[in-house]
Specification:
The chain contains 1 helix and 46 strands. It is mainly β. The radius of gyration is 32 Å and the shape is elongated.
C-alpha cells in the first residue's frame, strides 16, 4: 500500500509580496502541489499573484468591523486577518482571463486544476479573483472558501468556464458589481457547471455612486449556444436597501426602436425598466429590459435576447426603474441556457427593477426566501421553461408566455403578463387559495379558486367530463367514471361496481357515473349484490328506455350503509 503523501506547506518568510512569490516559485520548482500559508497582515500587491494547478493559498480568517454595529449583514472594514490590498488597476488573482476569438483545440490542457483559495480579505482591486473568460477555460476540481471582498472596481468575484468547483461563503461589498459565475464557451466545446455554491452574499454600494447600475449576483450562459449546467447553490443573498427609484421621461418615435432619454449614463444593458402608462406599444407596469445604450438613446425589449421593441406611435411616457436585479440567472444570446440547476434560499432585498431576473433557464428550481416586495417586480421570467418557483412571501411576478411550462407555488401578489400553473394563496384577494392548471395568460387569477367565506370552488374555465362508449353487457369499473354511453340495437345490461369504503385509499364513495341509453332497446342498470338505489327497499335495478339517462353517485348513509344515490332523467322526445 503506498504511503500517504503529506501536503507541502510553504510559509513566506515575511508579509511581503516578494516573499509570497518566492514561496510560489519554490512550490513550482519542487514539482507543484502544496499550500502557501499567508500571515495575519495587510499585504500590498503591485500585480496579480500567480495561479497554478495544485498550489493553493490559505490565509488567516479576516476579522471584520461592521459599519452598522447591530447588523452583521452590513458593510465592513478589516481589523485583522489576512488582507490583500491593491491600487485598483489589477486583479489579486488572475488566470486565463483574456477573451479569445475561439477555444483552443485542446482546451482542457489550459485549465487550472486543484487550486484553493481560503480565508483571505481583499481590498482595492479590479477583481479579487478573475479566472476564465470568453472561450478561455477556468477552474476544475478547485475550492474557494471564506473570502471577504470590498472596493473592487469591476466584479468582486469573476469565474468563467469552471467545472467541479466548490465555492462557499463569498462576501462582496463596495464593488462595481458583485459576483459573476458564467459559461462563456460554445456548448459543443464544453458545458461548464457541475459545481456547488454556498452562502454567496453581496451588498449594493451606498457611497454616492449611481448604484442602480451595479449588478448583484449573476449566473450566466454567455457563449454562443452556451449551457451553464447543473449548478447547485444554497443561500444566495443580495441587499440593495440604499437605492432610489429612477423616474425620467422616455420619448418614442413611431416605427423606431430608439427611445430618447435625457441622460443615457443612468442606464446600462440588462437594466429592467417599467412604464407608468400604456401607449406606443408599451403595457403599463410590465417589465422591459434595456438592450443597448448609445449616448442618450436606449433600446428595450421584453427580454435582453428578444427583438427590440418598435414604437407604434409618437409620444412620451414616464419610465421607472429601481436598477439592476439583485439576482440574475440569464444568458447573453437566444441560444444559450442555464439548465438543470437548483437555487435554494434566494434572498433578494431592497430596491431593484427585478428582484430576481431569470432568462433562458431550463429545468431549474428556485426556492425564494425574501423578495423586495414593492418595486417594478419581484420575479421576472423570460423563456424560463420547465422550471419551478417557490416563494412564501407576497410576490409580484412578471412571466412571459414562453415561460408557461413553468410553475409558481406559494404566495402570489400582482401577476403581470402570463400566469404560471401552480398552487398558491392569492394575496391580492384576501389570501384565497388558487390553483392554475394551464397558465392562462389572459387571466390575472388562478383557473380554480376558492371564493368568499362560503368556501366553494369557482372554476374560471369550462369543466369537461370523461366519455366512454359501451356496446355490450358491462360491469363498470371505477376508471369508467364520468359519462358512459350505451348504444346497441338489442337490450343491454349495465352492472355497477360494489361500493367499498374500508379505507380512504380504496373508498369509492363519491364515484359518479352518468349513464346514457343511446341505443334503440332498453338498458337495465343493476347494483352489485344487495346495495340499493337511494336506500329504497328492494330497489337494485333501473330500466332506461331508449333516450333516457341515469346519474348515480356512490354514497354512504347512517351506520356506514353504502348505496347508490340515483338521479333519473326524463328521456329526450
Amino acid at each position: 500500500m503506498p504511503s500517504r503523501q503529506i501536503p507541502k506547506l510553504y510559509i513566506p518568510s515575511d508579509a511581503t509580496e516578494a516573499a509570497i512569490r518566492a514561496a510560489h516559485a519554490a512550490a513550482i520548482a519542487a514539482g507543484g502541489g502544496g499550500t502557501i500559508l499567508l500571515p495575519d497582515a495587510v499585504i500590498a500587491l503591485t500585480e496579480p499573484l500567480p495561479v497554478a494547478s495544485g498550489i493553493g493559498y490559505q490565509g488567516v480568517q479576516p476579522v471584520l468591523d461592521y459599519l452598522n454595529d447591530t447588523v452583521p449583514d452590513s458593510g465592513w472594514n478589516f481589523v485583522g486577518g489576512t488582507v490583500l490590498a491593491g491600487n485598483g488597476s489589477f486583479a489579486a488573482f488572475a488566470a486565463n482571463d483574456a477573451d479569445l476569438g475561439s477555444p483552443h483545440a485542446d482546451i482542457t490542457d489550459d485549465c487550472i486544476t486543484g487550486w484553493r483559495c481560503e480565508n483571505i480579505g481583499f481590498t482595492g482591486f479590479t477583481r479579487a479573483i478573475s479566472i476564465g473568460a470568453t472561450n478561455n477555460i477556468g477552474l476544475q476540481f478547485s475550492t474557494i472558501h471564506d473570502l471577504f471582498i470590498r472596493d473592487c472596481g469591476d466584479w468582486g468575484m469573476f469565474l468563467a468556464n469552471f467545472m467541479h468547483t466548490d465555492v462557499s461563503r463569498i462576501w462582496t461589498h463596495l464593488c462595481g458589481n458583485g459576483q459573476y459565475y458564467g459559461a462563456l464557451l460554445p456548448a459543443s466545446t464544453l458545458m461548464p457547471g457541475n459545481s456547488r455554491f454556498d452562502s454567496l452574499f453581496n451588498i449594493i454600494p451606498a457611497d454616492g455612486r449611481d448604484n442602480r447600475l451595479c449588478r448583484g449576483i449573476v449566473f450566466e450562459a454567455g457563449g454562443n449556444g452556451a449551457h451553464l449546467n447543473e449548478i447547485y447553490a444554497d443561500r444566495i443573498q443580495n441587499n440593495a436597501f440604499n437605492r432610489a427609484e429612477l423616474r425620467v421621461n422616455a420619448t418614442f418615435t413611431n416605427g423606431s426602436a430608439n427611445i430618447a432619454v435625457a441622460d443615457g449614463t443612468r442606464f446600462r444593458p440588462r437594466m429592467p425598466v417599467a412604464f407608468t402608462a400604456s401607449n406606443h406599444g408599451i403595457t403599463a407596469g410590465r417589465v422591459y429590459v434595456v438592450q443597448s445604450v448609445s449616448g442618450n438613446t436606449i433600446k428595450i425589449g421584453s427580454a435582453f435576447t428578444s427583438p427590440a421593441l418598435t414604437a407604434s406611435g409618437d409620444g412620451t411616457l414616464t419610465l421607472s426603474s429601481w436598477g439592476m436585479p439583485c439576482f440574475e440567472l440569464a444568458s447573453r444570446n437566444e441560444g444559450a441556457f442555464v439548465s438543470n440547476s437548483r437555487f435554494l434560499g434566494v434572498d433578494a432585498e431592497g430596491g431593484s427593477g427585478a428582484g430576481i431576473y431569470v432568462e433562458n433557464a431550463q429545468g431549474c428550481d428556485f426556492n425564494i426566501s425574501e423578495v423586495p416586495g414593492d418595486r417594478n417586480a419581484d420575479i421576472v421570467g423570460r423563456s424560463a421553461g420547465f422550471s419551478r418557483f417557490y416563494s412564501g412571501n407576497t410576490t409580484i411576478t412578471d412571466f412571459d408566455n414562453a415561460s408557461a411550462t413553468s410553475q409558481f407555488h406559494g404566495a402570489r401578489g400582482i401577476g403581470r403578463h402570463a400566469m404560471l400553473s401552480g398552487l398558491w394563496t392569492d394575496q391580492t384577494r384576501n389570501g384565497l387559495a388558487a390553483f392554475n392548471i394551464r397558465g392562462d395568460a389572459g387571466e390575472n387569477q388562478g383557473d380554480l379558486e376558492v371564493r368568499g367565506g362560503n368556501s366553494f370552488i369557482y372554476p374560471r374555465f369550462g369543466m369537461g367530463m370523461k366519455s366512454t362508449l359501451k356496446t355490450a353487457n358491462t360491469t363498470l369499473h371505477p376508471l369508467d367514471a364520468g359519462l358512459v354511453t350505451f348504444e346497441a340495437s338489442s337490450m343491454l345490461v349495465c352492472t355497477l361496481p360494489a361500493i367499498t369504503n374500508s379505507s380512504d385509499a380504496s373508498s369509492l364513495v363519491g364515484l359518479p357515473f352518468h349513464i346514457v341509453n343511446a341505443g334503440s332497446a332498453d338498458l337495465t342498470v343493476n347494483t352489485s349484490s344487495t346495495q340499493l338505489f337511494n336506500k329504497a327497499a328492494g330497489r337494485t335495478s333501473y330500466t332506461l328506455n331508449a333516450g333516457e339517462s341515469l346519474l348515480v353517485v356512490a354514497a354512504e348513509g347512517v351506520s356506514s350503509t353504502l348505496f347508490w344515490a340515483a338521479f333519473p332523467s326524463v328521456g329526450v322526445a
